[in-house]
Write a structure and sequence with these properties.
393 residues, Aspartate Aminotransferase, domain 1, Aspartate Aminotransferase, domain 2, binds pyridoxal-5'-phosphate
Amino acid sequence: MRISPAKRITSLPAYTFKVIDDRLLELKAKGISPVDFGVGDPSVPTPVEIRRACQKAVDDRASAGYPSYVGAPEFLEAVANWTERRFGVAIDPASQVTATIGSKEGVFNFHEAFVDPGDVVLVPSPGYPPYSRGTWFAEGKTWFYPLDEENGFLPNLDTIPEAVAQDAKIIWISYPNSPTGACPDLDFFTRVCAWAKERNIIVASDEAYSEFYFGDTPPPSVLQAAIDGVVVFNSLSKRSAMTCYRIGWAAGDAEIIGILRSMKTNIDSGAPTFIQDAGIAALADEDHVVAMRDEYRKKCDILIDALVQAGLKRCTPQGTIYVWQKVPDGMSDLAFATRLTEPDVAVVAIPGSLLAEPLEDGRNPGEGYVRFALTPQMADVEAAAARLAKLTF
Ligand SMILES: Cc1ncc(COP(=O)(O)O)c(C=O)c1O
């Protein structure tokens, strides 16, 4: 029998991290363990109260049956209460929230509910891959807009051709922005919502890093600007170090949430209810979030000081758990990231061009940057910083 994958699988871009992966294998073969700033997966344990809540829920729900497709009423209520406390926005848990199996599932499958073949989806470059992969699997067309430093890493709406905007169904935005660290104010969200509404485009806002900011003011949610035509995806993966639990939510326009809910009944059977219980415990507590935020701030300061000492431009993020570092003039991001994997530094960072998609004119907006995820343990960050600071660029 001849087995062949679907074209949607074979047409995906090739795996591009190979160069870095090969260097890592070489280092490991020499007995050197590099500090891995590559993956945005928190290395701290999930807070103990959340784990206990999950353990208890497994017993409490011994014969729970299938979970609700859309989320348990208590979980939806906890999300609505948190949204009101955090952003001052009242949403109806019964019609304006749905649970997701982590944001990745929600973001990817969202396109199945809204994108017809040929519909355009406006996607940031650099950006989280499921915006584009979800579009392609739904047979839509991506139109990548650049996140450039000159424009504060925001979309320049004036440069999106009107003909493209007229065919667009969705615009993805994500702030605090991974990987650039940009955190715009509410005015920005208001402008995007007005622009999109005029053109009948859904604003899909990925707010996975809403709780990680380096200034004094918590970043706003797009829901503070508008709910009509707007959907937000958020998750407990980063906020509460719960990447393994797979729990998040979508919230916003009741019509959008209704369509998303009915699409999800065809695709999955809901987030496990005991995981939602752990999510309720997580949302009820802010202390662990404050502690985690402080820890990321310290790591960020240590890393940035080292990079500046090495002669690099100071690139302090406003939010997220990433540093989007400009590489030295005349050096490619791949060459810079490869240099960091040499045994005297033994640090892994991701070349920016691998996190971005080329634009229509062929330019890759991630070129010239590398991304450091502030996820290694503090002691490893300190050790890596000491080695980085000795470099001269
Ligand atoms: C921008 C962004 N959105 C969403 C997610 C997905 O989070 P989750 O673990 O909830 O799927 C990530 C994970 O790295 C992310 O970086």
